[in-house]
Specification:
The complex is a heterodimer.
Chain A: H1 7-28, H2 45-51, H3 54-87, H4 94-106, H5 109-122, H6 129-153, H7 158-165, H8 170-199, H9 202-207, H10 215-225, H11 229-271
Helix pairs in contact in A: 2-11, 3-6, 3-8, 3-10, 4-6, 6-8, 7-8, 8-11
Chain B: H1 12-40, H2 61-67, H3 71-78, H4 80-113, H5 119-131, H6 134-145, H7 150-157, H8 173-197, H9 201-209, H10 214-225, H11 227-242, H12 246-251, H13 259-269, H14 273-301
Helix pairs in contact in B: 1-14, 3-14, 4-8, 4-11, 5-8, 6-8, 8-11, 9-10, 11-14, 13-14
Classes of the chains: A mainly alpha, B mainly alpha.
C-alpha cells in the first residue's frame, strides 16, 4: 500500500502513548524524593529499601516459583493441545476441545478465578501455592497452544515423513525432528506463559491461600495504600527482566531460523 | 494442509496427545463452571465455606432438585445496583472498544504501509508493552493522572492550567477509559495489522487509476477487506473489558460501576459466595454471544 505523509506522525504518537508512562515510571524509581512529582536527584535508595523489604522479597520468590512451574507444565500441555488441534483430522469432541482452548483467552479473569476457587473448595484442596500454580497452568496453556499452533500450521512435514518412512517410531520422530523444528515457538510460548503468570493479580487473588502471596497481590495491596517509590523500583526490575527476556528470545529464534534455512539449503543441494 | 490419519506406528502415545490436555481442561475449566452454577443456586451459610452444600452423594437427586432455588438471581433482579453494574460495564466496554478502534486503526494502517524491512520491528514495539505487567502499566497512570500528578505539572508549565488549578481526571470514568485504551491497544492493533498487511495493494492502485479519490477507496476497499481484523480485535477487547476489575478499581471513582468490581466486593468484601457466583453466571450469559462470535472467527482464521 502507498504510504501517507501522516504515517510517521501517527506511529510516533502511537508509540509515545504506549511507552511514555512506562519510561516515566522507570525514571521515577531513581528519584531521591518520596514525592512522585518532585525530582530530588538520582538515588538508588528505593532499590535498597525494596531489597530489605522481607514481605516483598518473599512474594517475589513465590511468584518466580509459581511462574516457572506453571509455565513449564502449561507449555507441555499447550504443545500437546496444539498438536491435537493441527495434526489430528478428527477425534470425538474436537469442536468442544478447540472451544476450550479459545474461551479462556477472552474469559474475564474474575469468572475464571472464582470458578476455580469454588472447584478447589468443593474437592477439599487447601488453597495455597499449588492451587495458584494449577490455576495459572490452566489459562497459560491456552496461550501456548495458540502460539505453537500457528507454527505447526506453516510446518513442512517432509522431514517428519522421511523419518517415519525410514522406520523411526512416532515418539522418537517427535523428539528428534518435530520438537527441534518447532522449538522457537515452544520457547516463545513458555516466555509468554511465564510473563502472564508473573503478571496475574485477579486469578491469583481468588485461588491463593496463606503463605502464598504473589508479587502482584503484594504490589496491589501497597498501591491501594498509595504510590510508593519502592513499588516503582520493583516494577523497573520486572520491566528490565522481561525486556531482556523478550529480546534474547527473539535473537535466539532468529538464529535458529537462519540455521534451519541454511541446513535446508544444504539438504536440497545434497538431494539434487 | 493435509492432516495425516493414524500412522501404522500409532500407539497409545497418539491418544495421550489429545487426552492429557483434554482431561486437564475438563477438570479445571469446564467442571468449575458447573460448580459455579450449582453454588449460585444455593443459600449463604455462616460456616466456612460460606454456602450450604447443594449436592451430597448421588442418591439424593430428589433432595438436590428441591433444594435449588433462584433466590440469588431474584435478589440480583431486585437490587438496581446489579442491573446498573451490568449496563454500565457494557456501556464502558462498548465505548472503549470504539475508542480503541479509532486509535488502533490508523496505527495498524501506518504499520501495514511502512517499508517491509521495518515492519517486524514495529510489530515487536507494539508487543513489548504487552509483555510488561498489566498492573504496572495501570499503576503508572496513577502517578500521571493524580491531581498533583505529572499531567497537572505539564499543563501548568505550558500555561493551559493556572498555577493553582489541577487536573480532575483521577478516580473518574475518564481515567478508566484512558487506562483501558492504554492497556488493550496492542490487542486491537495486532489483529487489525494482520488483516491489513495481507491486503492486495493492486486493488487500491486500480481504484486510483480509475479516478477513485483515496478516502472513497478507503471506505470501498480497505475497510471492508479489513473487517475480519476489526471483528477479531473488537471481540478480543470487548469481552475481557466487560469483566475488567483492576482498571476500574485503581483508576475509577466511587461512581464507576463495573460488574467485575461488584463481583470482587461481593466475594472479598461481603463474603457472599452464592451471590458472587450468581453475578458470574449472569456475566457469562451476557458474554455468550460475543464469545461465540470470537470462537467462530478463530475457527475461520484456521
Amino acid at each position: 500500500m502507498k504510504p501517507s505523509r501522516f504515517d510517521p506522525v501517527v506511529l510516533t504518537l502511537g508509540f509515545a502513548f504506549l511507552y511514555i508512562p512506562i519510561i516515566i515510571l522507570v525514571i521515577y524509581s531513581f528519584n531521591a524524593s518520596r514525592l512522585v512529582t518532585v525530582w530530588g536527584g538520582f538515588s538508588l535508595q528505593w532499590y535498597s529499601a525494596m531489597w530489605s523489604n522481607q514481605g516483598l522479597m518473599d512474594a517475589a520468590w513465590v511468584t518466580a516459583r509459581v511462574g516457572v512451574i506453571s509455565a513449564t507444565i502449561g507449555t507441555i500441555l499447550g504443545t500437546l493441545a496444539a498438536l491435537a488441534l493441527v495434526r489430528y483430522a478428527r477425534f470425538p469432541g474436537k469442536m468442544a476441545f478447540s472451544g476450550m482452548i479459545y474461551a479462556p483467552l477472552v474469559m474475564p479473569e474474575v469468572i475464571t478465578g472464582l470458578s476455580l476457587l469454588l472447584l478447589f473448595v468443593a474437592i477439599g484442596i487447601d488453597r495455597g501455592f499449588w492451587t495458584v500454580t494449577i490455576a495459572h497452568t490452566t489459562f497459560t496453556m491456552c496461550y501456548v497452544a495458540i502460539v505453537v499452533q500457528s507454527r505447526l500450521l506453516t510446518f513442512d512435514r517432509s522431514l517428519e515423513e522421511a523419518a517415519l518412512d525410514l522406520g523411526s517410531p512416532p515418539v522418537r520422530t517427535f523428539f528428534k525432528i518435530t520438537l527441534p523444528l518447532i522449538f522457537p515457538a515452544v520457547a516463545a510460548g513458555w516466555m509468554l506463559a511465564f510473563t502472564l503468570s508473573l503478571d496475574d493479580l485477579v486469578i491469583a487473588s481468588f485461588t491463593t491461600g496463606p503463605g502464598a502471596t504473589t508479587l502482584p497481590i503484594k504490589i496491589y495491596s501497597q498501591v491501594r495504600l498509595g504510590v510508593t517509590p519502592e513499588i516503582n523500583a520493583i516494577c523497573t526490575i520486572l520491566i528490565g527482566l522481561v525486556t531482556i527476556g523478550v529480546i534474547a528470545t527473539s535473537f535466539t529464534s532468529k538464529r535458529t531460523e537462519l540455521r534451519r534455512i541454511r541446513d535446508e539449503h544444504v539438504a536440497q543441494r545434497g538431494a539434487a | 494442509m493435509a492432516e495425516v490419519t493414524a500412522s501404522p506406528h500409532a500407539g497409545p502415545a497418539r491418544w495421550l496427545v489429545v487426552a492429557v490436555p483434554y482431561v486437564w481442561l475438563l477438570l479445571f475449566f469446564v467442571a468449575p463452571f458447573l460448580i459455579i452454577l450449582k453454588i449460585s443456586l444455593s443459600d449463604t451459610a455462616i460456616a466456612m465455606p460460606p454456602y450450604t452444600p447443594v449436592f451430597e452423594g448421588f442418591g439424593a437427586i430428589g433432595d438436590f432438585i428441591s433444594q435449588l432455588d433462584f433466590e440469588n438471581y431474584a435478589f440480583l433482579a431486585e437490587d438496581p445496583l446489579y442491573l446498573r453494574s451490568y449496563l454500565s460495564s457494557l456501556r464502558i466496554a462498548a465505548i472503549s472498544t470504539c475508542l480503541l478502534l479509532f486509535i488502533g486503526y490508523p496505527i495498524a494502517l501506518a504499520m501495514a504501509r511502512a517499508p517491509t524491512s521495518i515492519r517486524p520491528t514495529l510489530v515487536m514495539m507494539v508487543i513489548l508493552p504487552f509483555w510488561t505487567s498489566f498492573l504496572i502499566r495501570v499503576y503508572a497512570w496513577i502517578g500521571i493522572l493524580k491531581p498533583e500528578g505529572l499531567l497537572t505539572l505539564l499543563l501548568q508549565a505550558i500555561g493551559i492550567l493556572g498555577p493553582t488549578e489541577q487536573v480532575q481526571i483521577f478516580r473518574t470514568d475518564t481515567a478508566v477509559f484512558i487506562g483501558i485504551v492504554y492497556s488493550y491497544l496492542p490487542f486491537m492493533v495486532l489483529p487489525l495489522y494482520a488483516a491489513l498487511e495481507k491486503m492486495d495493494a493492486t486493488l487500491l492502485e486500480a481504484a486510483s487509476d480509475l479516478g477513485c479519490p483515496p478516502w472513497k477507496a478507503f471506505w470501498k476497499i480497505t475497510f471492508p477487506l479489513s473487517l475480519p481484523g476489526v471483528v477479531a480485535g473488537a471481540m478480543i477487547c470487548f469481552i475481557p473489558i466487560t469483566g475488567e476489575f483492576v482498571i476500574p478499581d485503581l483508576l475509577g471513582g466511587a461512581e464507576t460501576l463495573m460488574i467485575g468490581k461488584t463481583l470482587w466486593t461481593e466475594f472479598f468484601g461481603n463474603r457472599d459466595w452464592p451471590l458472587a457466583s450468581a453475578v458470574a453466571v449472569l456475566l457469562l450469559l451476557v458474554l455468550v454471544i460475543p464469545i461465540m462470535i470470537f470462537q467462530n472467527q478463530q475457527q475461520k482464521v484456521r
